[in-house]
Amino acid sequence: xxxxxxxxxxxxxxxxxxxxxxxxxxxxxxxxxxxxxxxxxxxxxxxxxxxxxxxxxxxxxxxxxxxxxxxxxxxxxxxxxxxxxxxxxxxxxxxxxxxxxxxxxxxxxxxxxxxxxxxxxxxxxxxxxxxxxxx
Length: 135
Prior knowledge:
The chain has 2 domains: 2-67, 2-Layer Sandwich (Alpha-Beta Plaits); 73-128, 2-Layer Sandwich (Alpha-Beta Plaits). It has a 4-stranded antiparallel sheet, covered by helices on one side. It has a two-stranded antiparallel ribbon with strand order 5-8. It is α+β, with helices and mostly antiparallel strands. The protein has helices spanning 14-22, 49-62, 85-89, 117-120; strands at residues 2-6, 25-34, 38-46, 65-67, 73-75, 95-98, 103-106, 126-128. It is 24% helix and 30% strand. It is elongated, with a radius of gyration of 17 Å.
């Protein structure tokens, strides 16, 4: 789940409310919050579908922009050289490379959106779907 929120909501305890009210398991993958300016959060979220839907409705009613995103990076196969540098920073193994062909493999279901792979790619073949907020 990716959300952005306006300056008026930067002091709102969003993570606490999602856990307390909706009994969701949250892992904060990326957070960029600047008090009284703006903020964004990227969560890996687990729980019943109804609880997630109710939580999204709650957040939208508060004034947050909320989206569920299935994968947060894309790889341009024409630019990728299969060097494997991205696999060294992918702790959850969404990006892998192995013998015999040594071709990069990407499992979008495992990708959590940490974006650590983006800056290490020398050919700039990896881009993120979650924008970096401009503060």
